[in-house]
Amino acid sequence: MNFELSEEQTLLQNMARDFATREVLPKAAEIDQKHRHPEELVVRMAELGLMGVAVPEQWGGSGMDNVSYVLAMEEISRACASTGVIMSVNNSLVCDPLLRFGTDEQRREFLVPLASGQKLGCFALSEPEAGSDAAAQRTVAIPDGDSWVINGTKNWITNGLVADVMILFAMSNKEQGNRGISAFIVPMDSPGVRCGQADDKLGIRGSKSSQVFLDDAKLPPSALLGEVGQGFKVAMSTLDGGRIGIAAQALGIARACLEDSLDYALQRKTFGRAIAQHQAIQWKLADMATEIDAARLLTLRAAAYKDTGQPYGKQAAMAKLYASDVANRAAREAIQIFGGNGYVTEFPVERHFRDAKITEIYEGTSEIQRLVISGHLIKEHS
Ligand code: CAA
């Protein structure tokens, strides 16, 4: 077993850390306070090749691997979790299914601009009544000659309001349950596609999410991604990869908690000495660091399995389950270390606390990750 990163991976990690520290971190509080989509940072991430890290260069990406993607996601999310999720959705939930299921023509038209960051994507699976139960799709795709007519409502669509292209899931044959779901590529400026108001969220406030309404949206036959009825598998296998990205985002938030706590504990004094000299604080720091390392190993393992063509759904679910738990625990402990200063917006840890929570919810709640993991365990044991 080799724990060394390659030279290329180390270069990307250093580049992402440098960019995150110099350009993202100084803006993170303002992005959060103003609920601002950080357009200028998305442009910079595109210039740095971060919007399609694991997409081959031929298709507009950086031609690196998923381990590199995880390393970069951790760095960006350590600085700003909102910026992290914008990057994650474009990489994992939009470019990845286009690469795996798209025709060459679809890749040329959509993947090249998305992976190079000239365009931004979103992923529309969730609905008002299809969250954890993703197969309960009510959005319908009715064949109309060769074309499709789509009607329905999608919920909590990250990037929706600022995206150019949407990967959309809809029921094309109600009789067939999850085997009746199909996937489509939809330009957001298509007639009949409209976003609602931006969601007013607890955390990741710089990430714009909203409802997306489809009213008789007419799509050409070329909009179909994969085969008719294959959409649920497109969605589920895409989420396997997405969960690695969210695990890396959680890791970044947890590391922010640890590093901010270390800075604070070394300068804040109580009872005549820095609080870092008190054992109660030392134990918290030690636990945070240990758990972050364990979460990082799980996340890198899932990415390495994906890179080497091994099944990685269970590993991705474990990484997301554990890393999101670690992020929330680290954020709670960071606030405790900061005391009163942890409870006010002048210091960053209350933002980490609010940002951490979503990692236990989106791309499958922690309860869903446990279902996925136990499903694999039972299948492996039978
Ligand atoms: N890859 C490929 N195929 C898969 C799969 C996977 N990972 N998981 C399941 N399938 C296939 C199964 O093999 C099965 O196929 P057959 O019908 O041919 O046998 C089919 O899909 C149905 O599988 P299940 O019976 O396991 O499906 P289910 O209805 O019980 O649901 C679930 C399973 C795991 C609960 C699923 O609904 C799920 O993951 N729910 C969570 C949804 C989710 O993560 N949503 C995130 C929204 S996107 C988002 O959050 C983005 C954002 O904002 C940043």
| CATH superfamily membership of the largest domain | Butyryl-CoA Dehydrogenase, subunit A, domain 3
What would CATH call the architecture of the largest domain? Answer: Up-down Bundle
Task: Identify the overall geometry.
Answer: globular
Taken in chain order, the helices and strands follow as HHHHHHEEEEEEEEHEEHHHH
Strands across the major sheet, in which order? 1-4-5-8
Helix content: 40-55%
The CATH topology of the largest domain is Butyryl-CoA Dehydrogenase, subunit A, domain 3
Supply Rg.
21 Å
The class by helix and strand makeup works out as: alpha+beta
- Ions, cofactors, ligands: which are bound? acetoacetyl-coenzyme A
Q: How many structural units, i.e. domains? A: 3
Main pleated sheet: 4 strands, mixed
- Poorly predicted regions are none
**Overall mean pLDDT:** 98
N- and C-termini, Cα separation: 29 Å
Question: What is the strand tally?
Answer: 10
Beta-strand proportion: 15-25%
Number of helices: 11
CATH classification class of the largest domain: Mainly Alpha
What does this molecule look like?
It is a single chain. With 382 residues, the chain is α+β, with helices and mostly antiparallel strands. It folds into three domains: 7-120, Butyryl-Coa Dehydrogenase, subunit A, domain 1 (Orthogonal Bundle); 122-229, Butyryl-CoA Dehydrogenase, subunit A, domain 2, CATH 2.40.110.10; 233-381, Butyryl-CoA Dehydrogenase, subunit A, domain 3, CATH 1.20.140.10. It is 52% helix and 15% strand. The longest helix has 37 residues, at 231-267. The chain is globular, with a radius of gyration of 21 Å. The mean pLDDT is 98. Bound molecules: acetoacetyl-coenzyme A (CAA).
